[in-house]
Amino acid sequence: MDRWRVHKFGGSSVADAVCMERVARILEEDPNPRLGVVLSACRGITDALLNVVAAAERQDDGVDRRIDEIRKRHHVIAETLLSGDPRAQFLTSFEQDLRDIASILHTVRLIRAASQTVRDLIAGYGEIWSTRLFSAYLRARGKRPGRVEWLDAREIVSVEWGPLGPAVRWDVSEANIAKAVPRDQPVTLIITGFIARDARGLQTTLGRNGSDFSGSIFGALLDAGEIVIWTDVDGVLSADPRLVPDAKVIDSLSYNEAMELAYFGAKVIHPQTMAPAVLKGIPIWIRNTFAPEKLGTLICANPTSQLAVKGITSIDRCALVNLEGAGMIGVPGTAHRLFGALRDHGISVILISQGSSEHSICFAIPESEATRAEAVVREAFDSELRQGQIQSVEVTTACSILAVVGDGMAGSHGVAAKVFSALGSAAVSVRAIAQGASERNISVVIDGKHSSRALRSVHSSFYLSPHTVSIGLIGPGLVGGVLLDQMASQIERLSRDLKVDLRVRGIMSSKRMHLSNVEVPLGRWREAVSATGEPADLTRFAEHIHADHMPHAIIIDCSSSADIAARYPEWLAAGIHVVTPNKKGNSGDLELYARFQEARKQGSSHYLYEATVGAGLPIIQTLRDLRDTGDEIRRIEGILSGTLAYLFNVWDGSEPFSSIVRAAKAKGYTEPDPRDDLSGVDFARKLIILGREMGLRLELADVQLEGLVPPALKACGPEEFLERLPEFDAPMAQRLKAARERDRVLRYVGSLDAATGKASVGLVELERSHTFANINLTDNVVRFLTRRYNENPLVVQGPGAGPEVTAGGIFGDLLRVCAYLGAKL
Ligand code: ADP
Ligand code: ASP
Ligand code: MG
Question: Which domains does the chain have, with CATH numbers?
Fold first, then answer.
């Protein structure tokens, strides 16, 4: 006859009648004639029972109500699945159990304390009820070969609780099962998970989530060919799916990897589950009751998966205790005394780290033990503390431990580097580090509030999910709107090919904002923004974008508001990256500019603004590359306004200058009020941005600015301005004529000189052959004169305005930030 197969179904798999029917079908499809089926209590029942005990200890009035809820849940299942005698039998024994519980609780109430034995006894009823219900149901369906029998694990499994948890007494348990289970007959055993008996014969449990352990104990006792643990996820995932929504199913894991993941918090499997299976080399499958067609995860001795890192887990609510003192150096036995004292008080240590200088030892424990642990350590080292050989015992609460697990880490380089750079780019600081000598695990202790961000970021860095960036866009106007459209068209490709996961989670206009917890559907962002929304609130907007669980946050400011630029320091300092075409920030006062730089350093954040000068043209990046590679920038000259370039490119003197302005406005080449271009202020701002990038401490007032708006027309309305501009044509015509007489052209040019620190913007005469005299109509152009580009300057030229190219420039910056954050572009 085939070997036994053992199935274990978790609480979520047997939560109610519908679930139990699903389980019955899975078992009926298994052709193996001999099945051991271990069940948990119906979902939530163990918690509910333990809460009842706690309520009785508190003498809380809600005890009866809580018991009644438990009663109702089981009644509904019994009434749905059972009928006739089986139903009556179940209900009779169930009601008797509830009466027993009530009388135990009566005593607990009186003495206001429950012993562990009482707690174990009551907590274990959940498994008794779920298995009684299910065995009666499966038997009644009559579709399994042979008999369906109920098996009480307390009659079989004998354990001894020690410091490492429950240890199975194999000889006793084997003898018990040999007596209880028929040999070589088709049979389906429905077995209570979680509960067992100790050496004295008292009921005990295998610890929370212990039914997994029961599954593998019965696998070993029945010498099963395999153990299948059925749960509510598709297998063991690369991270807890509730924290990392894009966690992936791991095909196969070694016993050791699974053990390590379980120990460090992967709740999907109980850490002790592996031992019995390893003993007999039984493979364990983790599968989804709700999707039985999926293969699941195989845990065995020699898994096929070659991934270096299998999974990333975290344990929250830890405390870190740090013992520090020069007196520990070279003194043998300090660690022994320390951990001995903790063991004597039953405090279990999750992680230990000691520097090789032995100057300090730190260890992590559950936060609930922090106060006790501190007292134990202080007592153990009382004399050393008094004599100053140990200077301090520091306890830090609200920590989390993040563990990266995989057998393959031992043979591959750079795993640790990747972990730490991911933590660094998510601005998570590391308090302590431990690496098992097996190199199967790297664990780090971090600030608890960064736990999920750290988890996601490290998870992303191993390509288990793409780099996720939370994006907020301010100013969905002409440029911002085109940018969103450009992103919409590229987002899938970026995610597929480059593993960059850009999620626009908020869009804000001057009055309203639209926030999304997942992401704004970019194909329909206009509808989304107009359909819903709340009043604009920059603080809330930034907080939403910078959500703790998102590894990275970027705000794209497509407004031209100085008020918004004034918020950059706050955002940058908090670790939010900023990308913008808004000139108001970088050309504002120097004090603000200095704050950008400080905040950027403080928050390890990036601040990119290529599109502030020359739209999408690579001007700032070029300047940075020159500077960063050690070139010396001597002079920068350029035409940084498409409008002014156009006006002087087309004006040949045959018409007055004012007509050229009027025609340019009609073609849409100027701002609605052409004075915004003619004043040269916008141009001067761009020059300041470049100057500051060169290291010059420039303010707007320092720029020698020759504006083209006649002073008499500065204050009037735009209509009047255009009407009266011809009054001032004569002097302009005169300047053109003078230039021509010298065979030169007039151009509106800005220049920066490193030696003198001077910046000027205005009309200049140029040779006809000059680069600036020969550009396309609305082009921008910049010449860099540097030590390397001396005789023959470096020139960047091309369209320097327009929504498409400007948005392209911003998009480029956005991807550059992603690359800085570790995305492989
Ligand atoms: P059961 O009731 O079947 O015993 P549990 O709730 O004990 O189920 O365990 C399954 C749950 O474990 C999943 O729903 C999932 O939320 C959680 N979990 C945590 N970490 C992981 C992980 N790495 N892989 C899979 N599930 C995980
Ligand atoms: N019912 C027990 C618990 O909730 C055991 C288990 O489900 O594995 O801890
Ligand atoms: Mg479980």
Answer: 4-43+130-231 (3.40.1160.10), 311-463 (3.30.2130.10), 468-605 (3.40.50.720), 619-801 (3.30.360.10)
Counting ligand 1 atoms within 8 A of each CB, the residue from 206, 240, 246, 252 with the most, and so the one to mutate, is: 240
Between the CA of 531 and the centroid of ligand 2 the distance, in Å, is 46
pLDDT band at 41 (very low <50, low <70, confident <90, very high): very high
pLDDT in tens, 149-175: 999 999 999 999 987 789 999 999 999
Tokens linked to 674:
């052409």
Q: At what angle do helices 116-123 and 45-57 cross, to 10 degrees?
A: 140
Identify the residues whose C-beta falls under 6 Å from ligand 2: 10-11, 40-41, 46, 126, 193-194, 208-212
Contact assessment for residue 403 and residue 442, using Cβ atoms and an 8 Å cutoff: yes
Task: From the candidates 310, 583, 665, 686, give the one annotated as an active-site residue.
Answer: 686
Judging by beta carbons within 10 Å of its beta carbon (0-12, 13-18, 19+), is residue 399 exposed, middle or buried?
A: buried
The DSSP 8-state label assigned to residue 701 in this structure reads G
Residue nearest to atom 6 of ligand 2 (CA): 209
The full DSSP string for 207-251 is -TTTHHHHHHHHHHHTT-SEEEEEESSSSSBSS-TTT-TT--B-S
Q: Does 280 qualify as catalytic in the annotation?
A: no
Q: Which pair of structure tokens corresponds to residue 825?
A: 């572009």
Closest ligand 1 atom, residue 242 Cα = 16
* Ligand 3 center to 179 CA (angstroms): 29
Segment 605-631 mean pLDDT: 96
Neighbours of ion ligand 3 (CB under 5 A): 10, 209
* DSSP letter, residue 2: P
For the entire predicted model, the pTM comes to 0.68
Helices (H), 82-115: 84-111
Angle between helices 170-180 and 211-221 (to 10 degrees): 70
Longest alpha-carbon distance in the chain: 118
